[in-house]
């Protein structure tokens, strides 16, 4: 076997070339830093309005993060403080969760029973103006700051909504936002309905556990309503899946650096029920709610009903950038992957059964087509109309712990979910 012979001069030339390439890398970085420094100096000295160095740097950081993706952002002292308050379940504002989609400021979802919810803001609405200020070149952090204000102060939001021929102006009064993250009701005395409005506070899994144990004897199936749930804390999403599944991976996150890769395992110690389940989702379901619905779908634990979700499946890390930790950046470092390995980002969760929102279509019958067992009750009602019999003053009280058949007819997606669970209960018997 012949040895490869390289002349001394050629070897020296190759060595010098590699050395040159190695040296070239560092000056390129230095050149980039120098270019940035020159721009900052030019703005500080020549910009038409007086601008101090601190403000210039903040704008440079904010602009950089804004250009990276829709979810990376700078958190100044006020927004960083506000973010910490929101995880405790009570804060001031409109009760609206927004994000950037294709460069447009888009409503991910309004939070239940908040000023934005009551004013008619819907998931998917594009915010065109906040008061008289356009949002076209506004970054996410500035938009959120602009919408915040004193409790009781009014704000006008101009939105573009699919299906509407022109922009809509909606007035909202700012208020203290109290998030009741989890509520529970019974349907047909055998199906437990759990509404999770948000994963933003630290008590979601604990509240779910409380309600499941409270109604355990009568519960033969469970519906979890994640519609218009904008997401929140990752650990609460994982703990929620863990209540229903005893083994496997709830979700994983993978980033550029292996140090950011994590696999979140489930444990049988935390599982408290194995009854049939349906998850309701829509275009306002995002982030943590997509992890829960997608995870339970992949693990063959629940039937997903509704419309395709928002598609927010990236991981942001909060990194303090000041010595006193009063300011921070929110930086996308990884993406979420469901148990099957699929990603949520920009794709969302596609329901097993696609169902449109709205009322249930029913056959309208004549008021006089009644069953024999209802005849006496009907005739009594007819007599009341003509005044021949006194009305019963003892009005029936509304039981807020149950969902009635009439209420089901107002919610097509919920009705389909209930029908699916009824079938599963029958099959189980």
What would you note in describing this structure?
The structure is a single chain. This protein is α/β, with parallel strands linked by helices and 429 residues long. The chain folds into three domains: 30 residues; 89 residues, PDZ domain (Pdz3 Domain), CATH 2.30.42; 222 residues, 2-enoyl-CoA Hydratase, Chain A, domain 1, CATH 3.90.226.10. Helix content is 33%, strand content 24%. The chain has eleven helices and 20 strands. The chain has a seven-stranded mixed β-sheet with strand order 19-16-15-12-11-10-20, with helices on both faces. Strands 1, 13, 14, 17 and 18 form a five-stranded antiparallel β-sheet that branches. A hairpin with a 6-residue loop joins strand 13 and strand 14. The longest helix is centred in the N-terminal third of the chain and has 39 residues. It is globular, with a radius of gyration of 28 Å. The N terminus is likely disordered.
CATH class of the largest domain: Alpha Beta
**How many DSSP helices?**
11
Q: How many structural domains? A: 3
Low-confidence runs of at least 5 consecutive residues: 1-7, 9-14
Q: Using only CA atoms, what is the Rg?
A: 28 Å
Q: What is the residue-averaged pLDDT? A: 86
Beta-strand content = 15-25%
> How many beta-strand runs?
20
The CATH homologous superfamily of the largest domain: 2-enoyl-CoA Hydratase, Chain A, domain 1
Kindly identify the CATH topology of the largest domain.
2-enoyl-CoA Hydratase, Chain A, domain 1
Characterize the main sheet.
7 strands, mixed
Which range best describes the helical content: under 10%, 10-25%, 25-40%, 40-55%, 55-70% or over 70%? Answer: 25-40%
Q: Write down the overall geometry.
A: globular
Strand order of the largest sheet: 19-16-15-12-11-10-20
CATH architecture tag of the largest domain: Alpha-Beta Complex
Derived from helix and strand composition plus strand pairing, the structural class reads alpha/beta
> N-to-C terminal Cα separation, in Å?
78 Å
